Fold these 4 entries.
Entry 1:
Amino acid sequence: MRRLTLAFLAAAAVLGAQRFHTAVGVTERGSPIRAAVAWEALQFELPKPAVLLVGGLDGSRKSTDVVNAFLRGGLAGEDFAVSAIPNALPDGLSSPARAAVVADFPPEGVAYGGRNPEARYLRRFIGMHAPDLVVEVRDSGASGGLTQAPAAGNAPAGVGSVSTLEFMLADTEENAAQRLLGAIRSALAELSAVRRPSAAREEMRRRLRRDPVEIAEQLETAYGHRLDQVAYIPALALIGRLRLDDLTASRSRLADVEKIAAPYLSGTPTMGERVSGSILSGHLLFADLYEYTGKPAYLDLVRRAADLGFNADGSPRRSMPFHNEMSDAVFMGCAILARAGRLTGEARYFRMALRHLRFMQALDLREDGLYRHSPLDEAAWGRGNGFPALGLALALSDWPEDRPDRKMPLAAFREHMAALVRRQDETGAWHQVIDRVESYREFTATAMIGFALTRGLRRGWLDRREFESAADRAWYALKTRIAPDASLVDVCRSTGKQPSLRAYFDREAILGRDDRGGAMALLAATERAYWQRER
């Protein structure tokens, strides 16, 4: 924990600034909602109070100007760390539209698409930033605001409550920033007499104190207990439980996972009428069970999936089927093929994995090293990059080092990791659209890329000097987004190929329990546990 704090502060020192500039989200009209975040505010365990200033909700330029003046003046000093959203409504909305956004606190419904996304972005940002105090700066002539409807008072993002302060501007004044400083200090003094830090900040501290095994055990209470369909989501959660069994030197979970998988050994088809890439990769569970038990029936099921890469005469197909042109298929096809190759010793599976990877890269790999989700649009969707990262990490784990055809996927993995690390958010997460900072910080992309980085470090594929800090920061971000009850923050819902950048912006960001997010979190947490045990 202390080492992660020092890493964040070292990054701030390198940048030579107290704050970094980012975005909270994107407006309905497509404008980024800008923010300046104090580096120290991300260090939830530090004693310095954290304050978040919000301007612009009153529809006036005056409140935005005062917040910016406060930042420029460096008025916080040693008293507290201050972050700010100078203009929460950057489109300059009319009064009726502004009233609708303000009235939407606390927002209900799907985040972040639909009408008034600004309210949802602001709400989730407050929760994940977890300040001790939110200060809304407003023109005295404006009505309503965060303090009128409990914007921060009832656990935003499910984290914990945050106190709010309304700072009203006079009609004409030249010392507004200085007066604001006094108001903040008075409010913090009052909070210190009652309770400080905020409930939200205390919750963040509790989350960060957990070790990877503890987090995996908390996740296990909600995920990995059913296999209604042999698909990657339930399969990866069950694999996560098997890994947790290994980490805790127990075999109780193995018996339970075998019981859950038993119907598929007794004649229940693993592939129904609607076979997909998700179904193919779901067979990874049987590969793990074969390695744990040595039962040939499990290996037969692995072959059944991997053999779909070949024609009836044994010749390789152009690619694995069911790819739908989406970058997801790097994971869906390559991982099961490489696993089949290692378990059977048949080189044809590795050759097919390489063939499939090249096919998918020709469709979706961009010149900047990121993957477009599909040829339909250039957007580098977050999970659309998480899938290739996870898929190659798993495939390389099974690919014999002495095979010449391993060089290409290893180089592809390293190049992709380098491109992703360049786009990592300052909080440690990756965005819903990797290279668009105004898109939300997405949970599954962070878990999958974090897993891939950690696996690459564990196996020696990645240079620790270049990648270890990124893996540490990714884990830091994940810990803050996993609640003890296995609820998660901002898991992008199931997503086929989308026609536009905006469509990716507006995909639902789930707050709460989610099977896909839980499965990826279990993989990331157990991989982190292995890494910490080995270091």
Entry 2:
Amino acid sequence: MVGVWVLGRESGAGNAELFAPNAFIRIPKTGPIRVVVGRVEMGQGTATSTAMLIAEELEVDPSTLEVELAGADRAYSNSKLNFQLTGGSTSVASDWEPLRHAGASAREMLKEAAALRWNVPRGELTAKHGVITHASGKSATYGELASDAAKVTIRSPDLKTKDFTVIGKPMQRLDAVSKTNGSANFGIDVQVPGALVAVIVRCPVHTGTVKSFDGSAALALPGVKHVVSVPQGVAVVAETYWHARQGANVVTVEWDEGSAASVDSVELRTAHRALLTKANGKRRRDDGKADDTLKAATKKLEAEYFAPFLAHATLEPQNATAHVTADRCEIWAPTQSPAMALALAARITHLPPEKIVVHQTLLGGGFGRRLGQDYVGEAVEVSRAIGGPVKVVWSREDDMRRSFYRPAATHALSAALDETRGVVTAWKHHVVSQSIFAQVLDSFVGGVSPGGPEKLKQKTVSLGQKYLPAVDPTSYEGADSMAYGIEHVAVDFTFHDSNVPTGFWRSVGHSHTAFATESFIDECAWGLGKDPAEFRRTLLAGKSRHLACLELATKQAGWASPLDAGRARGVAVHESFGSVVACVVEASVEADAIRVHRVVMASDCGRVINPDGVRAQLESAAIFGLSAALKQRITFEKGRVQQSNFHDFAPLRMSESPRIETHLVPSEAEPTGIGEPGVPVMAPALANAVYALTKKRLRTLPLSLDEAT
């Protein structure tokens, strides 16, 4: 398989009214310049960073730019992932060069147009604030040069390496006003003329299918127009969401619950433990002689850590609007991958990709959930069934109980300690979990090649599902790349098929491997009588980025200074998605409840485009990570998810939120990820703080003193 990234035209582009030099820039004769955002905007600030990267080389004020979201188009493929997808904290990293190149190309084409018009060398012209000027006093706006610029050709221009005027400067988000006044268009806001609204009655077990159903009671209600069977269940289609929901409440369905009807969380954890004792699993890292060193050690530590299934719980529940006709399919969706949405629609409708249009909307949160296209498929299926446009809307309960989840994982760790030298001589980490990639491979292959041969795609998926489970890096990432300088290290992975649908959750495997690794390294520090921060400094010798983050976080947190009685600090440092984050958490225990008072984070994510955006992502990660650390888990009984809404899958409330301080390590390296790296350090830093305070080690998420060891 070959992935191809296409920037778009750089000559002959546009027309007399619009200069469109490439896929990202639209310069009209009059009015504001528009930039097309190739990554989706789901709250992480991509629209703003896109405008800043283009504006830097285009020499315009980014606050004057208008942004529009790209639909499904290969021109907007993620250069890091080779197809159109937003995830993996890759947006800025993948766009760092292409967007600056787009801006620089457009600038030079405008200068060339001016040079030809005025008969002067292009090198004598300057571009600033959307105006081309010459020393003679001649000047023209970009709009005035648009039609001429569309006719010229240039070679690839040089890009700035320093003296940035936009990059690195704080900027208010371009979507802040629209999201404040309600004019922003999310998927759930889409209004297509004549569209009905559908609610789908789904089996409470994810493998369930319809045996029979009776929709007569629903059809008798006001506003209900259709009750139809679709692969996902029974769709009640009505004039409004309220009418559809009322109809769904009275539909009776007989289900074949399928193979997952016996899934039980207690039994799953028992199965994990059995696998830990039976075999070492597939070795994913093997430095030195960890097994032999552990056998010979006179002092060892051993511990087991557990992380549960987790839902994404996006603020905007899943939804999509579709209109399918005999020769066309049009979709409006809050998806993290328009390409994957298009591929699924092509599979359902049997239409060629060029007959399918995907309109990207804003996302009310993504966190990996909207990489799944199930809600898009439902809208396409229902529209096809009723022969008209329809919006499918999930309830919060639908979203919680029929989603896909962060995999549960059990970690067994052991370490050999040398008390004389005060070091860890051997480290072994065994992870039992399941494979995300094996489950999502089908949709990923479709996204890469929506119009490719179906038999080849099926063969690719079949082979991947056969071999991926044993080697899927998302299951153990972070464990195999642990940065600590320990001579003998072994990391093993054992695959367990839980029959639970899983997918990418913010920070993916790092979300649970960091909890185990950073908690256990803390156990080693205390076992050797060492200060946890100083112990990490010793083990991170030569890891300059990790050390810089650790030093900055501990200094700003006042690690060495005394705290008020009843409070303690914990620390963690972890690398993910190319970035390093260190975190110090200050916590207390009040009436047997853990309370977080202060979070201090330091990050090295390479060159920072928008410091305000990076800080916002770290703050968001702190709340997201603490919510999972303190409150959240998904459990199963008889194949049914036991949680349903924010009362039993609770986020951190405003009254519970700590003071959050963020600090950035200066860097001139290329940008790395920031949307996810702040999440993994939260749970271990908090657990380590609780241990420092109570001497109770919490090894199960969510953290509870009732499960202390």
Entry 3:
Amino acid sequence: MADDTAPDSSTTASRQKAASRKGAARPRRTRTFRRLAFLALVLGLVGMGGVWMALNTIELPSAAAPRETTFVCDNNAGPGKCTFDNSIAQLSNSEERVVVRYDELPPVIVQAVLATEDRRFFDHNGIDPAGIARAVYQGLRGSSQSKQGGSTITQQYVKNVYLTSERTYTRKLKEAVLAVKLERELDKREILTRYLNQVYFGRGAYGVEAASRAYFGIGVKNLQLYPAAYLAGLIRSPESGDAAKTPDEATRRRNSVLSAMVAEGFVDGKAADLSKQVPWVTDAAGGATVTVLPRPPKRSDFGSIRYTGVGEEFWLEQVRQSVRQKLGPGAETRGLRVYTTFDPKLQDYAVKAVNATLDQPDGPVGAMVAVDDQGRIRAMVGGRNYETDKVNLALGTAGGGSGRQPGSTFKPIALAAFVEAGYSVKSPFRAPPVTQFPNVYATPGKLWQPKNFEKEDLGVLTVEQATWKSSNTVYAALAKEVGPAKVAEMGKRLGITAPLAANYSLVLGTTEVSVLDMATVYSTFANRGVLRTPYMIKRIEDASGRVLFDGEAGRAGQQVIPREVADTVTSVLQGVLTKGTATGAAIRTLAAGKTGTTQDSKDAWFSGYTCHLTATVWMGFQQPKAMDSYKGRKVTGGSFPATIWRDFMNKATKGQSPCKYPAVNAGKNVLNQSLSAVTTVPGQSTTSSTSSTSSTSTVPGASSTTVVPTTARPVPTTARPPTTVPRPTTTVRPVPTTLAPG
């Protein structure tokens, strides 16, 4: 009986034939696939080779010098020695960067970056196939561990410097080609250094030096293990890894970098574990110690300022403007080294002297400029708060505001013109309460009627006595004697840059000038008639040390008035401090100076000098208004400004050799007392009880002789218009006539 399970012979045969056909077809398909794959590979290689050859014709561009932070240094920095560490300010635009050399990089930061970004950096030729494969593998695994990307450090540098961040195959191929080219031209250490100076770390910091200071407040050379690991972890995404914003993510990144450093053998596990335990904020000695600095406030116009609270902001803006004028717009943010004339000690003395006296928040403010005997501006106080005021009150219109009337501090200019004309300071003049001059103004019938402070009749005074007592009526006579044009011309010669209208009232300081202008004038007296235009920038170098500007070349000064004239003025001004309106300004060494107060005490001044240093102090409100009294005292130049000047100069001149002024000849051309500045105010009495001589005298150049009673009432005057009104240059306006003594 047949077995039902046995296969049918015909069926078996058909199966064998089918298997034979399949076996025969498989090699044919395999051969076809292999041929097609080989063809595709050949075509791909040819295509890639063609692209590579095409891209290989691209020349490696010249790398532009990275935009660096500009350092501003004080007078203590010598040539080539202005660095981040001794700078008083750093100026930058959008990038804060300080370029460092490879030998300035500590090994720990190099190791941290290599472990994180490119472990085979010193082995590959610019591209790393193994690194690309590793990145792909990690991506397929979906690993959350810190991992390297496919781009080498060289490729990252090429992308940042030569290319864009677009995600295209063409850009990636170009990046690879340029990376290989770069590796052929530069040493590995040079490429790594350039990369570490270029890469962005967040907080506006480009490069490891700026980053180290932005996050830890120290230079990169002082970095330890955990901060180096933290910075390396920021490179891929700085903002999301900032410990001040996302401490957990920052911790994860830092720890991943430390683990990578252990895996590469850069550090041992124990050191890495200790660094992983460092918190971002620790509590030490009862106070919070921040490991990573908090995020800085919104950037000011100056970048970062070193001496906060000492007033540098006011003069730093002027430094910046000066750099622009000398080297072009934007030059101040091109990695320059700017050497200034400012002395940090004197700056501190100046700010403290002003703030100690003018310490009422709603009270008047002060400004000061100190200039040495070489014309170097040593200190400048421009106001109380630059961030809120944005005006430097020491510079007048150049500081964003207006000038101020100098009052009687202008009188020494007229005195210099008087002495230069050959007149003696021993010349006697009547000093009545009020005097007048005809035809001073273009308006018919208008008279100029200057008055002494508080209507005081000072009797008969010599010119030097009139200076000590600040007699307006005597100085009006001096202006009449030498002529307003000579007074204005003398002011220009001595260093005033503001427009000066040649009218009689100029002698009483009614034209607006700056604090710097008045410091220049008095410095010229101190220098025995030599004008040395004040300056604040000594030298400008680029980042390589090449000198771009030499501010001290050709500064010998110019003899603008004879020595004898300057010495005579100095001799007279010494008496102001010893027996005149400024006894409160007397200091331990011989000095000279003059007070000034405008109508209603809107402005109060003191300007004075030794043979080494000149300082001018101004006091008032930013928007001019009367200062009737302050702290219970009447405001004059001899009060608070003199106090500020004394406090500053006592410290600033400590240790300096005492000044020895030459003996002067008061002059032989003594004007007769009959050349008095006394004329009548129409309709008033003609008696005077204080003069020991005749009560009437002749006005120089006038056609008649008249007198004014000591009881003459002040004539109403017109106050100075607001500072927003343009200063007249050709049309004379009514001016105040009652000024305080100094």
Entry 4:
Amino acid sequence: MTDSPSAALPDYLSGLNDAQREAATYGSGSGVVAGPLLIIAGAGSGKTNTLAHRVAHLLAEGADPSRILLLTFSRRAADEMSGAYSASPARSRVSMPGWPVPGFSWAGTFHSVGARLLREYAGRIGIDPAFTIHDREDSGDLMNLVRHELGLSGKGKRFPLKGTCLAIYSAAVNTRKPLAEVLLTSFPWCAEWQTDLKGLFLAYVNAKQAQQVLDYDDLLLYWAQMVSEPEIARELSERFSHVLVDEYQDTNHLQAALLLAMKPDGMGLTVVGDDAQSIYSFRGATVRNILDFPEHFDPPARRVTLERNYRSSQPILAAANEVIAQARERYSKELWSERVSSERPQLVSVRDEVDQAAYVVEQVLAQRENGIQLKSQAVLFRASSHSVRLEIELTRRNIPFVKFGGLKFLEARHVKDVLAILRWAQNPRDRVSGFRAILLLPGIGPKTASRILENIQAAVPGCALLPEQPVQERVQPAWLEFATLLEGLPQRTWPASLEQVAQWYEAQMDRIFDDAAMRVADIQQLARIAATYPSQERFLTELTLDPPEATSDEAGVPLLDEDYLILSTIHSAKGKEWTAVSILNVVDGCIPRTCPPAPSRRSKKNAACSTWP
């Protein structure tokens, strides 16, 4: 299998193989927007590069960059797209490289793009354009508050906790299934609470509306409801001549529905993905979206398959092809590579987790002696708890490591405190952010905080009169300073407003934390990140929906070692590359299968480790 570039191609397409070039140039020269395109991109097949070149080619053929909508699933994906796109000479059609660039502003995650569209159309769909966005933790706190107000926390039997309630609510929203069906299929132990849960979710929605807040799921739900209005759907279809979607196998029913509402005929719609890499069903994603995509249109969508792999050797791909072939329903493809190797993947049987940890560590050290740095090696696992025994062994042998899938930047308490102050200043009706912000002051407890928030809720919008709120005399000076800070923020330019909040907060940190010094670095990093955004609104939205990882050692990154082993869940590792990889617990039940397991003589109690050099 070979690829040979044809003559008379533009320079920026000459580095693509035949299938990549076919996908990048689909609809070329017709003078009209092409019909729907499905790009099935096998692992390591240059999907990001192909999609970036399709954008470049559209621009080279005269497409208006302001009418191109690119939807990715993470900021990292957008950054990768930026690097691939910037490498193309066709980028000269816009004013500068980078992502997004002037004139090419509609690129981001589904949720971040949804937030921008909702603010723009807020007046027409009945929401306040100044809404704030809750992250998962804030949403859980509001759910818990409503749960308590309804008396559900005092039930004789244990009513589901806030995290479970939020997960059930999110599943119902994203899968567009009735609550009864969601409970039956995914949360059967909560089925007895169906009536109470229905009442809880209604009260939760009412609380969000009263406080002018949206949660993570609302950004898709409101967007889908918005495009259910034919006039708005038509406007958006005309506004975006081309819509390109990355990782389509990870979309849920709601995302697919809003795309089809915007582009019912599929004109200008390109989706990229791989049915064999659909691993996010726990987030409501369904592989049916990519399997059924072509038949939504008449004629069916054009399909281009990328099979050449640039990442792995042929023996690894042969094993992967055999695994993929077991899927009951799939797109046919055969991954191949020009990278030959005499080494084959190893399936190693071990007695238990202790032996597994010892074996993996010995392999890691042996690879290091052979010249492969620890940073170039990774150990993957299905669930974070699967690596506990390995972490103990690594610590015992003084081998530094970083574990991904843990604490994120936004999850750090000090970062959440600063963001809560900004959100509350932007939207005084946001009870969760306000409660968190008020409790930062010394001498003010939950009762006083609740009373202040109730007063603000009852006040005429815009007349909160923060300095006049009732607080004890001993905390009056601190409260007046804080109230003056909040009232002055709307008059300050961005990012000066965040810098002022950060300055106030840093003065409180020695009182709040025993380890304040290490946390200051995160606050300073937050200020640097803020300077890259054009407004507070964009900053709060983007950081909430796609936060970077922490900069302090709370993220687990060794500060004294320049080399360290990578530990990661399989989900967090998607799209990354290492020279040597070990996978823990490759046994039925730990690594789910998509087909019935074959009879096996090996006891399921035995842990297994698969090493891929």
